[in-house]
Model the fold of this input.
Amino acid sequence: MLTVMLNTLSPSPFLRSQQTISHCFSSSTIHLFQFSQSQKKPLNNCLPNNRTERGIEFDIGDTFFRHESATGRDLGVLAAALYRKSKGSLRVLDALCGCGIRSLRYLVEAEADFVLANDANDENRGVIVKNLSRVAEGFGETRRWMVTNCDANRVMSEFYLQKDFFDFIDVDSFGSDSTFLRPAINALKLDGLLYVTSTDGFSSGGHHPSQSLAAYGAYVRPMPFSNEIGLRMLIGGVAREASVLGFYVTPLFSYYSYHGPVFRVMLRISRGRINKNRHYGFVSYCKKCGNSQGFSWSEVGQMSCPCNDTRVSESLVVSGPLWTGPLHSADYIEDMLTLAMQWEWIGNGQGKDLEKLLGQMVDESDSKLPVGYIKMDEVASRAKVNSPPLNTMMSEMIKAGYAASRSHIASNAIKTNCPMAECIRIALELQQSCLGVHQVT
Done:
């Protein structure tokens, strides 16, 4: 049952006038917002467990909280702030808000006009309200925030039915639960932002192909760049759901973090006909030569690797359908960098990790770069040499006319259009050059 604090029942931003709730919701919805005084829990039932993030104090109580997820929250706040700056207003739904720190940061840092903080566990209500109370709640049309405790899909569906849409929806779900995707898309304004999550490393690693197929419509098999596949699997799942509703998606950034693991993607959802080159297809990896490539639907049944003279080979591993297009928008990330600099999150020796991450995302946005990345350990194994220095390898690849960038997903990997055979050649030449230097010395 959805529980709402007594002081949040006055008219809110989704109630367009000072009318009663019955004028805005069906009888079944009204029941969601009903409560009794016995259900109203005191705010002091939270155990003191204070934290500070970006100078904002909050209490985690007994909720599940990861300090390591702060970077993902930073990225979300930057995106939300850019939206408000461009559109002039910002209404946020934090569908699975936990302790409410994301909701609080959207209010304080992104200056959201209104945030609906929802968590299905009503035991978390006290700590959420306590945290959001650091911001004046407001009243009537100027209400800044509201807390609900209900199934996220039901909340999003109710707002969709009332045609009361959000600019920005954050769905920080656990595992491979994709049931949130369609209700979230429905509850979003045109050209709104959807921030989605997966923490299912087993599916992205190809260990549960039937589960990835059920959740995201993609049959995923083991590949060396499985964590990038996890991002593409998630984007592809949203793209599939969006296409059913007549929308298309544009990834603004895609972020992988090893803890969890966590796959987070920011998408703009737009109305329109799906383009033929919609970047929704198949990804292959050849165990024989180490090359990866993308295939369109029209190439189904004709997939092969050049190392096998265009014949179907047992060495070819194929996953899909997945998102095969860019993981990031370079222009958008440049705007995020600019805003982070204005906020002094980066620059002057501050925020080196965030600045490095955003810089790598810009580099990864190069349209010449294909799906996947090449690990230096795999190059060393195939060349039978010591693992070459990553920066030196990149430099030699670029000298040879190839595109190359570091991968934010794997520290010892390069995203490049340089074929594996060329990578091996470069590694061997570097090894010989190194041996020659030692001999002269």
